Structure formats: structure tokens, C-alpha cells
Amino acid sequence: MREEIGKIQVQVRRGGPDDGRLVDYEVPLLASQTVLDVVTWIQRNLEPALSYRFACRVGMCGSCAMTVNGRPRWTCRSHVTDVMKDGRIRIEPLRNLPVIKDLACDLSGFFDKWQRAEGAFVPTQTRKDSLAPIAPQEPARQAASAGIECINCAVCYAACDAVEQNPEYLGPAALNRAWTLVNDARDGGNRARLQAVTGPGGCQSCHSQQGCTSHCPNALNPTRSIAGLKQAAARAWLRGEL
Amino acid sequence: MIRPHRSQPLWYAFILHRLSGIGLALFLPLHFYLLGLALGDSADFDAALQWTEQPLVKAAEFGLVFLLSVHLFGGLRLLVLEFFAWTAAQKTLAAAAAGLSFFVACGFLLRAI
Amino acid sequence: MLDFRLYLAQRISAMILAPLVLLHLGVMIYAVQGGLSAEEILGRTRDSLWWGSVYGLFVLAVAVHAAIGLRVIVAEWFGPGKRSLDLLMWLVMLGLLTLGGRAVYAVTLA
């Protein structure tokens, strides 16, 4: 057991979709403690009924994102000492998503938008064909690589004002995914994809505020991906393909 | 309005672009109306131009020149990132747009007074 | 809320406006010295095909740009329905075209 080096005053949003309230807890401050550790400590020691979501605890699975002191973060890799203000932490569910209970959000709308943005790979070859030769230094491969390490944590989605103001908007994560596929030489779905990402709530709703980019825990740049989609879509429009 | 997730320079660039756009859109009808006075008696038009010589109006014009300039340079930053090429220095470019616009507006004011 | 074609119209009008605004800023800073007079302004613009076309294009582009811009802002901040947004956009566009067209006519042709 690590040594207790102080106390943290924690506020946690509790309750169902419509009766949210902040509840105060006092939690021991430990060295190298993450916000997820704090939530888990509360659940194990003070509030067994506390609902929250996590799986891997090492920044791979993207399930533990919450709003910490007003900012969306991956809680498993956010250190308490980095985010604590005057010994206090406020932990709430992600913004822009319906709350199920306490800190757990319903992410189905978020993932539905990945489908709506044509975020699924459309193969052009069969298993009988040989592997597609793609040089690592090709610009399209590099553009795809730049966006591909998304862990689907919805931090960008929660940080986005365009999503808040226009619930139809596909959001940074789904559009970033679409952009990686636009740059995938093996994919055959781009015409439908560019139509999808310029439909209602498409890439044109992005105002390049870059809240997504400044909050992405994996340091991706969804704004840049969306700008790429805007440009690709404008070219498609000139070709009469939209 | 300024919540924690918005406290980053490019959100300020966004809100400056939006508010300057609103300001310019509201000013345009007045601008067009004053120019339209040239249709009638040129004395009316001259009187309107004389009215703009007041210090308070000059200060307002300084503000308008700043709004126009910052909407132009901020808008150019957006056009370039959307249709030309992404540059990593977005925050620097946004700050440069605001700084340059301040100089443009000062240049206007110094010539106007 | 914002159709992709409206988005493109917004950006294309912005590309047209950029050099015109730059020119406008330059002329303002040049002309404001020593105060403005009707004689000075009209002496520059009257019967000038160049200034007539420049300001004509300026008014056209700004009417499109401002109308779509205000549509987006009103949609995001006040959330009215699509029909109200369409109405607002067309009213702003036609209003600016009328007033702006009248202003250009006043300083160049009349």
C-alpha cells in the first residue's frame, strides 16, 4: 500500500439522467495516483453503487473518459496532481452524451455516427489477391497514419462545441475515421463516404476551434482531418460527385 | 461563456472571428445608407461625412477597421488551413492576425486624426 | 442546418472578399487623411467602371457571405427551424444587396 500524502476533496456527479447532483467525498492522496484510481477508491470504500466505465487502465481501450474539473480527459492516465485545483477535483460524465447513471454515458449515438460517416472499410480485393503495396512515405499513407491511433474514447466529441450546438453533427472522431479511410488506397467507398460526410451535420459544421485537437489524449489532430475532408469534398463537388 | 474546455487560444480566435463578423454585418446597413445619401443633395452627404469627424465616431471607426482587418486575416488563416495546407503554428497565426489588425487599425487612426 | 453547398458558397465568397477587403483597407487608410469629403469620394468613384465593378462585386460577395454567416450563428445560438433560417438568410442577402446596390449606384453612376 502506498503511503497517504494528503487528502483530496472530490465531487462526483451522481444520479440518473434527470436527477444529477454533485456528492462530496474525501479521498486519500497517494503518489502517482490517477483520477480513475480516485473513482475506484470511492467505489470500493464509500459508494459501492457508483457506476462508471473502465477496462484496460493503461490508455488503450478508451472507455474511462470523464469530465475532470470541466475538461474531458482519459481518467486512467490523468494524474491527480496534474488536474487537482486547490486540493479539489470535480468528476462528471462526458459532455454531449446522454447520461445513464452517475459517470456512465450512453455512447451508442457516438458510435452510430461512425457508421453514418461511412467509417467502415469497403474492400476492393479478395483474399485471393496479393497484398496491396503501399509505401510508408506516400502522402496518403502518412495522412492515414496521422489519424489512425484513435482509441474511440469520445474525449474530442465531449470537447466539441459544434456537437453541443448541433446534435446532428457527426463530430471529430467519426470524421477523423472517415478521413483515414479516404486516404486508404485499398478502400473503395470514397464516393459514398464523401457524400455522407457532407450531408446533414457533416464536416461543414466544423469551425476549426480545435477543442478536439487540444484535448485528444493521443495527440491526434481531428481538426486537420476534417479540413482534409472539406478539401476532398470540395474537389468531389467540382467533379460533380456530391 | 468561457468554460474550462474553451480556455485555449484558438477558441478565442473563433469567438473573435464570430463577433467581428456580427459587428461588421450590423454595421453594413448603416455604411450603405450613408453612401446612399450621395444620391440626393451632396450637402447631406457632406454633412454625414462631417459627422464622422467627431472623436467618438473616429474611435468607433478604429474599432470597425480592427474588426474588418481581424475578420480578414483570421478568415485567411481558416481558408488556408481548409483549402491549402495545414500549418502547425495555428496559435501563432491567430495571434499574428490579431496583432497585425491592431497595427492596421492604428495606422488608420493615425492618418484619420 | 448548413448545407455543404452553402458552406462552399460561404468559402468562395470569402475568397472573393479577401483581396477586395485588402484593397478597401488600403483605400480607407489612404483616403481618410485630411478628412473625407463628398467631392473627394465622388471624384474618385463617379463614372468609373473600375470602382463600379469592384464595389459591385464587393456588395454581391458580402451579401452572400454575411447572410450565410448569420444563418450559422443564429442556428447555433438560438436554434430556430430550417424555414426560419432560410427566411432569415434570404432577407439578409436581399437586404444587403438592395442597400449595397443602391450605395454603389449612388457613388458611381448617379
Give the CATH architecture of chain B: Up-down Bundle
Number of structural domains of chain B: 1
Shape of chain A: elongated
CATH architecture of the largest domain in chain A: Orthogonal Bundle
Give the end-to-end Cα distance of chain A, rounded to a whole number of Å: 60 Å
Estimated structural class of chain A: alpha+beta
Q: Rounded to an integer, what's the Rg of chain B over CA atoms?
A: 17 Å
Tell me the layout of helices and strands.
The complex is a heterotrimer of chains A (242), B (113) and C (110).
Chain A: E1 4-14, E2 21-30, H1 35-45, E3 65-68, E4 71-74, H2 80-83, E5 88-92, E6 99-101, E7 104-105, H3 108-116, H4 139-147, H5 155-159, H6 161-165, H7 172-182, H8 190-196, H9 211-215, H10 222-238
Parallel strand pairs in A: 1-5
Antiparallel strand pairs in A: 1-2, 3-4, 3-5, 6-7
Chain B: H1 9-36, H2 42-51, H3 55-84, H4 90-112
Chain C: H1 4-31, H2 38-45, H3 49-78, H4 82-108
Helix pairs in contact in C: 1-3, 3-4
What does this structure look like?
Chain A is an alpha+beta fold and 242 residues long. Chain A contains ten helices and seven strands. In chain A, the strands form two sheets. Chain A has a five-stranded mixed β-sheet. A two-stranded antiparallel sheet of chain A has the order 6-7. In chain A, β1 and β2 form a beta hairpin. The radius of gyration of chain A is 20 Å and the shape is elongated. The N and C termini of chain A lie far apart (60 Å). Chain B has a single domain (9-112), classed as 3 helical TM bundles of succinate and fumarate reductases (Up-down Bundle), CATH 1.20.1300. Chain B is built from four helices and no strands. Chain B has 113 residues and is mainly α. Chain B is elongated and about 55 Å long. By secondary structure, chain C is mostly helical. Chain C has a single domain (4-108), classed as Fumarate reductase/succinate dehydrogenase, transmembrane subunit (3 helical TM bundles of succinate and fumarate reductases, Up-down Bundle). Chain C has four helices and no strands. In chain C, α1 (4-31) crosses α3 (49-78). The longest helix of chain C has 30 residues, at 49-78. Chain C is elongated and about 50 Å long. The interface between B and C is large, with 36 and 38 residues.
